[in-house]
């Protein structure tokens, strides 16, 4: 049993705690919150029995094996470094870090202390993500791809009311690229490899971050266009085009349908497998296996994670979006 300490008590931390509780491999053991009462009311529902409002105390606890970080993006680095220094494995929510400098320092520290550092990019561990990758590899050529990921954020209402919620703040390394764009970058980099060049047409909002935008990855013989948004909804399926053949994905994360359409034969086949009963189960299982029985997957995941950090920082800065964490 891996004993886990939680940082963050919001919706996503609840979802991860639920996923862990569905596996017989983890124990939700401790919770840190800026408010002790919140730590207790969050943790008791999952059987936790250690509660902290002092982060250093939680990190020093010898009873913990893993720290799960679900705090605002700009806090991930310092919190991960503290966990690593205390020899804890770390599962950090996407986007793991604000920039490549942080990414490199955190991974160097993890190696030095002999612990694993995972970025919780949940779709990467969904079997359908690999099925899509395998189907792309079977295509004779790739002519074009369009990936969509956009969801109106309830916190955008606060922006419209003149506030600056964390997810839309440069202080907390927020914005559409960091929040949802990373999913599309993961997909593009895993499925098509690194591009020759990239650009980002960002639509900035009054807080200085991108509310939406279009990312273009240029490869020698095709382009991948990624539309992302946090201030309007995108419902269009994502598509990968190869002459008469098209792969059509109903969703970029939580994919439930992967249609292969061949206009030459007028055939459509659905290749998707049934998704796990909880969206975070696959990643939780994958991290546990990698901690207990290390394989070469870890290096593969972190190569991809660093590429995502590299390209997101590059196109973000190109689009004139700068974070406090970059200083
Ligand atoms: N994998 C997914 O599907 C998914 C979905 C949503 C979010 N995420 C990721 O999860 C992370 C958290 O996102 P979120 O939307 O939950 O963030 P959030 O609500 O802004 O903050 C998360 C937690 O951090 C603490 N916190 C908030 N503001 C803080 C501040 N100013 N200083 C210190 N601590 C603060 C709060 O815990 P306390 O009040 O208890 O201290 C809060 O519960 C992000 O990295 C995000 O990208 C992932």
Short note summarizing the structure:
With 327 residues, the protein is an alpha/beta fold. The protein has ten helices and 14 strands.
Which helices and strands, and how do they pair?
Elements (H helix, E strand, L loop, with lengths): L1 E6 L3 H12 L3 E7 L3 H9 L5 E3 L2 H6 L5 E4 L6 H10 L3 E5 L6 H14 L3 E4 L6 H12 L5 E7 L5 H5 L15 H17 L4 E8 L5 E9 L4 E7 L8 E5 L2 E5 L8 E5 L4 E4 L10 H12 L4 H22 L9
Parallel strand pairs: 1-2, 1-4, 2-3, 4-5, 5-6, 7-10
Antiparallel strand pairs: 7-11, 8-9, 9-10, 11-12, 12-13, 13-14
Helix pairs in contact: 4-5, 6-8, 8-10
Description:
The structure is a single chain. The protein is of the alpha/beta class and 327 residues long. It contains 10 helices and 14 strands. The chain has 2 domains: 2-123, NAD(P)-binding Rossmann-like Domain (Rossmann fold); 127-281 and 307-326, Dihydrodipicolinate Reductase, domain 2 (2-Layer Sandwich). The strands form 2 sheets. An 8-stranded mixed beta sheet has the order 8-9-10-7-11-12-13-14, with helices on one face. A 6-stranded parallel beta sheet has the order 3-2-1-4-5-6, sandwiched between helices. A hairpin with an 8-residue loop joins β12 (245-249) and β13 (258-262). α4 packs parallel to α5 (100-113) and α6 (127-138) crosses α8 (176-192). The protein is globular and about 60 Å long. The mean pLDDT is 97. NADP nicotinamide-adenine-dinucleotide phosphate (NAP) binds next to loops.
